[in-house]
Amino acid sequence: MLVEAGRNDVAGVDDLVGDQHYLSLNLDTAPLKLEVKEPHGFRPFVIPPRSLWISPSASPITLRLNSTLRYLRVSIDPLHLGRLISPSLDEVAPVRLRRTYAVQSPQIANLMLTLREEADSQNAGGLATVEAVTTALGHLLLRHAGIEQPGPVRSHGGLSALAKRRVLELIDAALDARLTVEMLSREVGLSPAHFARAFKESMGRAPHQYLLALRLARARRLLETTPLSLSDIAQRAGFADQAHFTRRFKRAFGTTPGALVRTLH
Fold it and tell me: Domain range for residue 26?
C-alpha cells in the first residue's frame, strides 16, 4: 500500500492501467472538474471537496482535468485487501471494485487521513494500526464501489500454510536478489511447475507477477523517502538494470521514476 499527498500537476492520462486500486481524495476547497473518456466521447464529472473517486485495478482510463488541486491518494493491492477482509485465509480472492466518482463518505475520508498521519509519523510499530485502518477501509469500499464477488471456493491445490509462510519470508528477505521459480520451489520441495500452479492458487497471481508488484512498491517507497540514485534503487528493488526498472515502473504507474522524483523535489 502507498499513501501520497500533494498538488496535482498532471493535465490528463491516456489508457492508464494500474495493478492497484487507487482512491483519490479532493483536499481542496473547490470542486474538481474532470472529463473521462467513455465509448461515445468524454463525460464530465465533478468531485466536491472532501469527496473521492475510485479507480480500480486493471481498468484502463483516459481522462482530462484542468486543476492543480490538493489531493490525498491511497493505492491498495486488490489481493492484499482481500486477505485483510476475508474471513478465512484459505478463501482469499482479490477484491474487485468499479470505477466510482464523487463518493461522499466522511468515514472513508477520515480513514485515508489516518493513513497519511501514520505514514508521516514514521512509527516503526504502526503496522498494526495500518492493517486495522485498511481493513475498515476495505469494508467501506465494498459498500460504495464493490462488485459482487463469486462465492468463495476453498483451495485444495495451493501451498500448505507452512510452505506459503516459508516462501513469503524468503521473498521478503531477498527481494533484491535474482529470485526464480526454481529457487523458490526448491525451498518447499516442489517441482517448478507444481510450485507455480500452487503459488498462483494460494496468492491469486503467478510468482513473477507477485514479485514484480512487490519490487515496484519497494522502488516507489525508496524514490519517495530516500536520495538514492535510480540505478541504486533499481538494484535494491531487484530489477536487472535501470532501463528495465524504468519500463516496468512507467507501465505500472503511468510516469517514469525520474519524473516522479522531480515532482517530489
Answer: 2-145
